[in-house]
Amino acid sequence: MTRIAFIGLGNMGGPMAANLVKAGHVVRGFDLVPALRDEARAAGVEIAASGSETVKDVDAIVTMLPAGKHVRAVWAEIVPRAKAGAVVIDSSTIDVESARAAHAVAAEHGLKSLDAPVSGGTGGARAGTLTFMCGGSGEAFAAAKPILEKMGKRIVHCGGDGAGQAAKICNNMILGATMIVTCEAFVLAEKLGLSHQALFDVASTSSGQSWSLTTYCPVPGPVPGSPANNSYKPGFAAALMLKDLKLAQEAAQSAGAETPIGAHAAELYEKYNEAGNEGADFSGIIQYLRTAKSN
Ligand code: NAD
């Protein structure tokens, strides 16, 4: 049984920590929000007085925080207090630069570290079926894997420090762009008098096939479980898609990669968010595309 610290008990971190408790680990957690601490306590998490209090004598530390600045600040506080030999895992979605800076802090103090962002959303966090995309040394991956397996079902070692974050933002850039063009195809089909089902039947078995179409179809009907059938309730909120597309653009700029379609996808999601849709599912952008005059 491994003793684990868990910092950031929000929409994702709360259920992830609860799954570690269910798997028989002693979990000591902390969040800035008192109500989230109470919820985690009810799920069996021991609540500490602060982030740095969580890490005393634990074998592993998981952070699940909003953005790079939070991860940098929390790791600067906890890493010097962690036990020698512990592994520190960050599962937040953050910029590659902050992820590498966090690894450097861990290395300075002789700790193993892993960037391990997830896909699968809050449903996957609750069900323990997340995919973890991991960056770090083989030794860090080996130490973290048995813990990540209690919260997810696919644990992929993508490469060295920052490779997990790189995989996450590249994947989500594909997702954002394919969702937009899938929506555009349905809007064009509507104008051409082609039914949603007919386009789906052809494209889902042809070269236009993608996850955005076959799992997450942005119009109601063809895929009964997609958010389009539930008034575009998330799912995966448009605000989070915009966050990931912006991270991809920051990374592209600093790495000198040309990503014109990714850049345009970020602009369109920015407009969709600005129109008051931050909390809607990202596939709801079809409603914006139907009415947008010029983008
Ligand atoms: P959230 O805002 O619900 O949770 C983050 C928590 O971190 C909050 O409860 C906040 O109080 C806490 N926090 C911030 N600073 C802290 C500090 N110094 N000490 C302790 N706690 C602190 O966000 P979330 O939806 O759980 O997402 C967490 C991360 O996972 C984000 O990086 C997000 O992009 C990523 N992610 C989210 C989803 C999703 O569907 N929600 C899917 C994949 C990845």
Summarize the structure.
With 295 residues, the chain is of the alpha/beta class. Helix content is 51%, strand content 14%.
Describe the SSE topology:
Blueprint lengths: L2 E5 L5 H10 L3 E5 L3 H9 L3 E2 L3 H4 L5 E4 L4 H11 L8 E4 L5 H13 L3 E4 L2 E2 L1 H7 L2 E7 L1 H11 L3 E8 L3 H30 L3 H8 L7 H4 L23 H18 L4 H18 L7 H7 L4
Parallel strand pairs: 1-2, 1-4, 2-3, 4-5, 5-6, 8-9
Antiparallel strand pairs: 6-8, 7-8
Instruction: Please name the CATH topology of the largest domain.
Output: Rossmann fold
Distance between the termini: 54 Å
Helix-strand pattern:
EHEHEHEHEHEEHEHEHHHHHH
Q: SS-based structural class?
A: alpha/beta
Q: Which cofactors or ions or other ligands sit in this model?
A: nicotinamide-adenine-dinucleotide
Taking all Cα atoms into account, the compactness measure Rg is 20 Å
Number of domains: 2
CATH architecture of the largest domain: 3-Layer(aba) Sandwich
Major sheet, described briefly?
Answer: 9 strands, mixed
How many β-strands, per DSSP?
A: 9
CATH evolutionary superfamily of the largest domain: NAD(P)-binding Rossmann-like Domain
Number of helices: 13
CATH class of the largest domain: Alpha Beta
Estimate the helix proportion, in percent.
40-55%
